[in-house]
């Protein structure tokens, strides 16, 4: 019997495309990361691990890791919990659910770059609607009382809001203290609608009878049913949502590029923005490649963690 | 143990009325079966008793107290669901512990993390574990305690579901077709086990099924339900031998009862296509009737010394222990089934012309409204 070789012809286009489009670029980046290659220069030198060493050496890269990790640590839990909460609220509605779904999903569908400019106007220290609102609030008695905490007996001028009223409203994107928070807020605003949709899908797969069963077993509050049924039954969804949100948060770029360009004083210097700045703006291909490899390392760790959890912990049958 | 009473319960989903003014009293320690075709409202009725669904009108009483406003978790009933509804992320042992934990531990003792520091928690947990151990010994599932439901067979899951219902000693058990996911052999076996469990626990059981064999074998009394109404509530023996209407007669019994067109006169004589069937109809009125004779009350006869019907065998169904003969009678106008011992019909074949006799004592007749007029 002669062995047919036709299978090679069938799989080769896919394999070839995968190599050229996916694996080769990573390999090339890996190679470049050990050189000092600059785009435009004729030759390059092998410099070993120097690019990687400088990641640990220079303060701007330390700030980069801090900013990226802080962003992830803020955006992931908040947007995941908000997504879960809103999904549960929406799925408990008897009508109007479609409306809320659409509204919360809008930020996901909108181009983040365009939305970033809208946020720039909103957060503008002088003409921005947020500061205008806070400014006007200073002269509204109950609003001032509530936000300064004077109804709790705190001295209004010592509180955060009281201080702002006496001085001036913050520069949300230009002040080192607020910039990362503002970027994170936009990140949450953008991500939670997506998480909500994933959780809505997850909730529909929870068998109704489990809630009836929990009720018969004595779970008479929403909290008990959540603890006994909803939360554990969403196990696979949690893993997926957390992983996807983490990876997407690591990838944040549009808002940084449009609003802060990594500033002020590198407080919002995120990884992908650094890759862009080094590799594209400054043509330092070697350094950019090293950043890319480290970034891929992070994503790989996240993905492997997800695979581990999917296989071990949340697989019930 | 509890008495359960339903007082003119009705239930509508939108404009469709699923249950129509239904009354039912279940006495202490009784095993009652609600049987009926798919979609007749059995599950809905059970969910109303459990408190998982609100009735549109009427009262549910437990031990004489109206519990319309009491929520399901506080009615102290246990339910076994058709799909078992075990918590897939918990082991069998944890599944069995859930109802006890929810009822015996305080809110704080159950709270994640904080609970670990509550003083009485561990002694209460020990008590719960020993209860679970006892229940799993009764049901012979001790070797399964560390498994997840996904790693169990259907029959084992069914036992765990029963175990979860019985650990906390509820006042009554509600079971919604608990055996319908099992294969035929296991179903027969579990029937016996559930009956035995009922004898041991002496608790009230309300058991819903669409399988009349389960109802006939297990229950003290059975309620035949159709289109949201209980047509007859009586012992299995009475329901089988004395169905109140033709619908009950047709639903109960396998193979189905033979129904023939006939006429009755004032003296109680009953004729089907010219042949006299019986002369002892009790509530006789002149007119058209439907005659019902169960397949096992008919047999093939050889001589013509009694009244007989002539028929032709069209199909022969061999079940090993019995043979069902499908026949056409009245010149092919009507079909009947005769259930017979294999030895009696060994020489018959499809296409044979045969004579059929019947047991006159067992003949039933139903008037044009379907009411039984032979009540024995
Ligand atoms: N939530 C609901 N909304 C509308 N109609 C419903 C609802 N639940 C049940 N029904 C209807 O009520 C009727 C009775 O349903 P039920 O589940 O009680 O039937 P059942 O007797 O248990 O049938 P089965 O033997 O198939 O389980 C059905 O016609 C069903 O379509
Ligand atoms: Mg049902």
Blueprint of the fold:
The complex is a heterodimer of chains A (317) and B (376).
Chain A lengths: L5 H27 L17 H8 L1 H34 L4 H13 L2 H12 L5 H9 L3 H8 L11 H7 L12 H26 L3 H10 L4 H12 L1 H16 L3 H7 L10 H11 L3 H28 L5
Helix pairs in contact in A: 1-15, 3-9, 3-12, 4-9, 5-13, 9-12, 9-13, 10-11, 12-15, 14-15
Chain B lengths: L3 E10 L2 E11 L4 E5 L6 H9 L6 E6 L2 E2 L10 E4 L11 H13 L2 H4 L10 H18 L15 H13 L5 E5 L7 H18 L2 E6 L2 H7 L2 E6 L2 E6 L1 H6 L4 H6 L6 E7 L5 E3 L2 E4 L8 E7 L4 E4 L7 E10 L4 E7 L4 E7 L12 E6 L5 E3 L10
Parallel strand pairs in B: 3-8, 3-9, 6-7, 7-8
Antiparallel strand pairs in B: 1-2, 1-4, 4-5, 9-10, 11-12, 11-14, 12-13, 14-20, 15-19, 16-17, 16-19, 17-18
Helix pairs in contact in B: 2-4, 2-5
Q: What is the N-to-C order of secondary-structure elements of chain A (H for helix, E for strand)?
A: HHHHHHHHHHHHHHH
Please estimate the helix content of chain A. Answer: over 70%
- The end-to-end distance of chain B, rounded to whole angstroms, is 34 Å
Tally of separate helices of chain B = 9
Give me the count of strands of chain B.
20
Strand order of the largest sheet of chain B: 6-7-8-3-9-10
Q: Quick one: how many beta strands of chain A?
A: 0
């Amino acid at each position: 019997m002669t062995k047919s070789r036709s299978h090679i012809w069938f799989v080769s286009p896919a394999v070839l495309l995968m190599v050229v489009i996916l694996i080769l670029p990573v390999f090339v980046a890996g190679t470049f990361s050990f050189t000092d290659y600059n785009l435009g220069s004729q030759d390059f030198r092998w410099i070993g691990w120097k690019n990687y060493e400088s990641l640990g050496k220079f303060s701007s890269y330390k700030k980069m890791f801090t900013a990226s990790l802080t962003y992830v640590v803020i955006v992931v839990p908040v947007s995941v919990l908000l997504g879960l909460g809103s999904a549960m609220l929406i799925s408990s509605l008897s009508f109007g659910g479609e409306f809320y779904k659409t509204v919360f999903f809008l930020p996901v569908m909108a181009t983040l770059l365009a939305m970033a400019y809208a946020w720039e106007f909103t957060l503008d220290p002088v003409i921005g609607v947020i500061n205008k609102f806070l400014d006007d609030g200073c002269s509204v008695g109950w609003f001032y009382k509530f936000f300064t905490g004077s109804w709790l007996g705190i001295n209004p001028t010592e509180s955060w809001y009281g201080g702002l009223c006496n001085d001036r409203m913050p520069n949300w994107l230009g002040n080192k203290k607020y910039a990362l928070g503002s970027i994170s807020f936009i990140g949450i605003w953008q991500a939670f609608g997506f998480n909500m949709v994933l959780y809505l899908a997850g909730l529909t797969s929870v068998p109704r009878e489990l809630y009836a069963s929990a009720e018969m077993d004595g779970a008479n509050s929403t909290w008990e049913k959540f603890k006994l049924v909803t939360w554990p039954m969403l196990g696979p969804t949690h893993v997926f949502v957390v992983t996807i949100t983490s990876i997407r948060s690591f990838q944040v770029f549009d808002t940084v590029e449009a609003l802060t360009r990594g500033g002020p004083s590198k407080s919002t210097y995120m990884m992908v923005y650094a890759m862009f700045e080094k590799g594209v703006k400054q043509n330092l291909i070697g350094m950019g490649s090293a950043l890319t490899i480290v970034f891929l390392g992070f994503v790989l760790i996240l993905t492997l963690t997800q695979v581990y959890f999917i296989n071990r912990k949340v697989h019930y049958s | 143990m509890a008495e359960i009473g339903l007082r003119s319960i009705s239930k509508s989903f939108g404009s469709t009325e699923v249950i129509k003014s239904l009354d039912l009293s279940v006495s202490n320690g009784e095993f009652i079966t609600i049987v009926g075709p798919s979609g007749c409202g059995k599950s809905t009725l059970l969910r109303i008793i459990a408190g998982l669904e609100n009735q549109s009108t009427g009262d549910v009483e437990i031990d004489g107290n109206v519990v319309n406003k009491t929520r399901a978790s506080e009615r102290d009933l246990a339910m076994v669901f058709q799909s078992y509804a075990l918590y897939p992320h918990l082991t069998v042992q944890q599944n069995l512990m859930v109802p006890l934990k929810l009822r015996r531990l305080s809110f704080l003792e159950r709270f994640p993390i904080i609970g670990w520091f509550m003083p009485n928690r561990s002694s209460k947990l020990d008590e719960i574990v020993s209860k679970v151990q006892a229940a799993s010994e009764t049901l012979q599932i001790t070797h399964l305690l560390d498994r997840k439901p996904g790693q169990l067979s259907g029959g084992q899951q069914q036992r765990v579901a029963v175990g979860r219902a019985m650990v906390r000693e509820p006042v009554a058990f509600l079971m919604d077709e608990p055996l319908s996911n099992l294969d035929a052999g296991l179903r027969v076996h579990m029937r016996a086990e559930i009956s035995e469990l009922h004898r041991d626990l002496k608790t009230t059981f309300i058991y819903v099924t669409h399988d009349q064999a389960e109802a006939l074998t297990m229950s003290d009394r059975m309620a035949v339900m159709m289109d949201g109404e209980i047509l007859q509530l009586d012992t299995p023996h009475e329901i089988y031998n004395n169905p109140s209407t033709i619908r009950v007669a047709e639903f109960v019994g396998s193979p189905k009862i033979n129904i023939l067109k006939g006429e009755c006169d004032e003296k109680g004589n009953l004729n089907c296509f010219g042949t006299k069937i019986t002369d002892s109809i009790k509530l006789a009125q002149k007119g058209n009737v439907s005659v019902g004779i169960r397949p096992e009350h008919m047999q093939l006869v050889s001589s013509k010394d009694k009244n007989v019907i002539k028929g032709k065998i069209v199909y022969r169904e061999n079940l090993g222990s019995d043979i069902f003969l499908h026949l056409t009678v009245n010149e092919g106008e009507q079909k009947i089934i005769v259930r017979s011992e294999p030895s009696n019909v060994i020489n018959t074949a499809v296409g044979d012309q045969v004579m059929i006799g019947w047991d006159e004592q067992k003949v039933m007749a139903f008037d044009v409204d379907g009411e039984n007029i032979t009540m024995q």
